[in-house]
Amino acid sequence: MLPDLTDLNTFRDALTNARGPDELAVQGATERNGQLTKPPGALGRLEDLAIWYAGWRGDARPQITAPQVIVFAGNHGVTAQGVSAFPPEVTVQMVMNFEHGGAAINQLAKSAGAKMNVHALDLDRPTSDFTQGPAMSEDELLIALRAGWQAVDPQSDLLVVGEMGIGNTTPAAAIACALFGGEAADWTGRGTGVDDAGLANKTRVVAEGVALHTSDDGLEILRCLGGREIAAMAGAIAAARVLRIPVILDGFICSAAAACLARMSPGALDHAVAGHQSAEGAHGAVLTKLGKEPLLNLGLRLGEGSGGALAINILKSAVACHSGMATFAEAGVSDS
Length: 336
Ligand SMILES: Cc1cc2ncn([C@H]3O[C@H](COP(=O)(O)O)[C@@H](O)[C@H]3O)c2cc1C
Ligand SMILES: O=C(O)c1cccnc1
Hints:
Elements: H1 8-17, H2 23-35, H3 45-57, E1 67-73, H4 89-99, H5 104-111, E2 115-120, H6 138-151, E3 158-164, H7 169-180, H8 184-187, H9 196-212, H10 218-225, H11 228-243, E4 247-249, H12 252-264, E5 272-274, H13 283-290, H14 306-324, H15 328-331
Parallel strand pairs: 1-2, 1-3, 3-4, 4-5
The structure holds alpha-ribazole-5'-phosphate and nicotinic acid.
Nicotinic acid binds near residues 169, 192, 252 and 301.
């Protein structure tokens, strides 16, 4: 079902030509929703979510039994500019923590009944500092996209992608600024918690990167300003689009990866909902640009897929109501 990613054009074509949701399933789910034992619309957004999910799965009465959480890790040359409150060694240390089950995302994936996979991408070879040149070559971008593309289990029925990469709120801010315009300061936040001087320096770094790499193309922006784990998230979200696996987006970094796809192809994120709005300042603005209303707003600013994983239970609940509830006729309840 998934073509081999032999080159970047294969990726572009696969994304652009991916089919949309199954309209018959949407119709069937909409009809079923109208017959369930509740006042019309009483389950609010849960109803829309269930119908949306049904369409992408091609099943008017679907179930969620196999969610997958994938965490991608990468290192960033731009950390040499002092953009994070933490040192880059933390990336590999956190990967070990994920592998031993000790991180927040391990607990959240487990609570959501999701399997979790971790992919560390060339951690001992950080991307290039984007204030000096493109973060990645075309080959490096392709390899990272492919890592994400191949990491998606075609048997899964819901996908959350998360990231670990010290410094990666800087490339995410640069991507957002390059895609959406405005000033670097509009898109730059504190990440792991840089102080005021750190924020000013980070804003300068984002401005320099965006000034050096101007493009209208989402993939070129991803290559020049992104990072391996960001590209891998984009690759996985795109693969899920082709496989019709619904996606729950996580925070600022995940949304920046997704936004590159939306720039490449307008319907690229139709299979995705925003799991949450993170506390990273510009995340809300990115979601507005993407036309995505977050499901949760809990002040998280972690990444790792944490907000996406939390929202799995909301989507599961929506689908459980939709597919498990009795209709008025079945329950013998008067419908007016
Ligand atoms: C211990 C630790 C665990 C994390 N888990 C996710 N992040 C998050 O923080 C990083 C981005 O923030 P900045 O751009 O400021 O470096 C990413 O690794 C992101 O996943 C973490 C950061 C730390 C320190
Ligand atoms: O929004 C996020 O995903 C985020 C914010 C701060 C640090 N790491 C991740």
